[in-house]
Design a protein that fits this description.
Elements: E1 2-9, H1 22-27, E2 30-33, H2 35-41, H3 47-58, E3 61-69, H4 78-97, E4 104-108, H5 121-133, E5 139-143, H6 151-156, E6 159-162, H7 171-186, E7 192-199, H8 215-226, E8 231-237, E9 250-257, H9 260-276, H10 288-298, E10 303-307, H11 322-329, E11 335-341, H12 343-352, E12 357-362, E13 374-384, E14 387-389, E15 399-401, E16 405-410, E17 413-418, H13 428-433, E18 442-445, H14 452-455, E19 461-465, E20 497-498
Parallel strand pairs: 1-3, 1-4, 4-5, 5-6, 10-18, 10-19, 11-17, 11-18
Antiparallel strand pairs: 2-3, 7-9, 7-20, 8-9, 12-13, 13-16, 14-15, 16-17
Length: about 500
Amino acid sequence: MRVAFGGILHETSTFAKTPTTVQKFAEGFGIYRGGQILERFRGANICSGGFIADLEQAGAELVPLLWAFAYPSGVIPKADYRQLRDEFLDRLKTAMAAPGGVDGVLLDLHGAMVVEEIPDADGDFVASVRTVVGPRCPVMVTYDLHGNHSWARFAAATATVGFDTYPHVDMAERGVEASQLLRRTVRGEIAPVTAFRSLPMFWSAPRQVTSHPPMNDVIARLHEMERRPGILTASVSTGFPWADVPHMGCSVWVTADRDQGLAEATVQELADWLWERRATWQAPPVKVTDALDRGEAEGRYPIILADHADNTGGGAPGDSVEILQTFLDRRLQDAVVLYIVDPEVVAAAQRAGVGAMLETTVGGKSDPEQGPPVAMKAVVKALSQGDFVYDGPMYAGLTGNMGPSVWLQQEGVSVVVVTKTEQPLGPAFAKTLGIDCRKMKYISVKSAVHFRNAFEPFAGNIYSVDARGTHTHNFRALAYQHRPRPMYPIDGEGPPRLG
């Protein structure tokens, strides 16, 4: 059995101003071709790592094509997307023309990719692969929990598997699941058919943490459905609300073995169950000062503030400063902000050197909504070129790079200033600078949920705060032009839409 695999992954914020070029892919997790994919991702906790593990265990012949990942940012220019897509397709055509051809294709995608003039870029990509391989070749796709889905992409795929966890610690598992479905399909053991529904509602990030209620109830429901006779897989997507596209929003899908009626009935049951509980998936925003007051009243430390309105993992610029300014105004001790993106400050710190006193303005430079910049007179505690190793369950086995970076400290407040927009999935990078997050009393992270697996074990209290920033969770404040309407709870209610 010869199986081709790869993907182009991007979570696109249409509200972010920086376009995502091919160069941004190269500077992100990177662009890997052929055997480079095996070298980079064998044993790694991502979907392609799961593909590799399952296919090698089964004795299949692996045909790695192209894998490209850019960190969340703005819309991809059409020419840049076509350059990557067409290279992928050319490599696929070459694989098909080789002796033995291709028995199946595994696609590692995100589900919220937006390209200039192509709002449903994931749908375009899957449909393009289908055009190349023809109607009979199995094509299995994996997606992030935060995809914005259309029926077109499911119609082009044979089966689709979504993540079950947030933070995303099950990526390799989902890759294995997709690969097993593909192998069973190639052998003729199953014939997958899929039903899809979209739900007109926003889903608050604090209610998506899959290890806690109420989200763990959703995942338990999915797993119960997957144990039913004839059901192959079931998934939910909570959507990505910072992509202003016609198919933005929550969705669910169910894949059955040969029985379209069973798939339709089961997915409708799931959609109805979620819609009836739509108020459950909402959480009001919390102000920064309120979160600090609550945490200090309870007296459990460290108090962790998730700055989800400036979550660089969702395409935000990473230089909002409300929390940093609040820490300084309150003259907090043992406080740290992870991270603020400001290459100008990093360059100034490099010129000054470790131990120097640096007078500068930090953050708030990408957009007026992120600022104004914070005046600091801080000690340069440490400098770094940004290399580190992920030590948490997410991206286990991979290395990362924050670019040239600096640890600044003004009295009791520390801030890590970086040059790349990557969220703090754990304390690993801070540790390379000499910061022990376990000894801190106050921690701010530019993240919504992904930080939890690494920080939660030693956290006193965690608060998701809606500090000032371009990626606010007050969705009424975002200037949507293309998203569906109505969307609960912002502008009324409408019945769940059919796929």
